[in-house]
Amino acid sequence: MNRSAQLKGLMTKAWNKGKYISEEDFKSHFNEDFIQKYNITHYELVDVLAYIPIVCNKPPKMLVPQKKEHKEWYVYFYFLKDHLDTPIYIGKTYDVGNRLQQHIKEEKKYKQIKYVLCCVFETENDALDFEAYYTRYLQPEWNIDNKETPSKLYKLPAQELKPWAPSTTLEDPQYRQIFKDVEFMRSTLIPNFQKTINAISA
Fold it and tell me: Can you tell me the distance from the alpha carbon of 30 to that of 37, in angstroms, rounded to the nearest whole number?
């Protein structure tokens, strides 16, 4: 793609986003400083200036990125094998598996995560509220935000904990250990940690 075509594409995007509102706005952008800075040739300048009326002939589309809606949101709790009394990290996401992969890519310490529990919410706002609430009360070691002292003036209702494991089939031999871990989470980790959740809840 030549530079004239690239400039035309940028002009179209700028117009659709409302950066310019008239032909005069566009033309004033192509001043002497701009031409020298980007070393625009006479041919390129004539070509893009001729394109301005074409762009401005249509009403701007005002392209606004749409925030994707998700059916479920999760507050998740990471546990280490030898650190089961309290979570080492608490977070919020709409995809627990993807978030764990991101954490592992960002920092090697997340490879130590052995168990993941979660609470399910219908909206992101609810998940945000409970993420902050649990982080303030439990003070997980790896969290940075929401570490201030929790308010004693209000408490949020207790939430049901669920085990998290990768989506897979029980028949696959390589995942047998994962399902053993899920059984441990259900039989031991969840009942113990649920008592902690209930104790700090309304």
Answer: 11
Identify the structural domains of the chain with CATH numbers, from first to last: 3-56 (no CATH), 73-199 (3.40.1440.10)
Split at pLDDT 50, 70, 90, the class of 165 is confident
Average of per-residue pLDDT across 58-77: 81
In the sheet that holds 113-121, the strands lie side by side as 89-93, 73-80, 113-121, 162-163
Task: Encode pLDDT of 114-133 as tens digits.
Answer: 999 999 999 999 999 999 99
Whole-number pLDDT of residue 35: 73
Nearest to 195 by CA among 82, 76, 72, 84: 84
d(CA 86, CA 141): 9
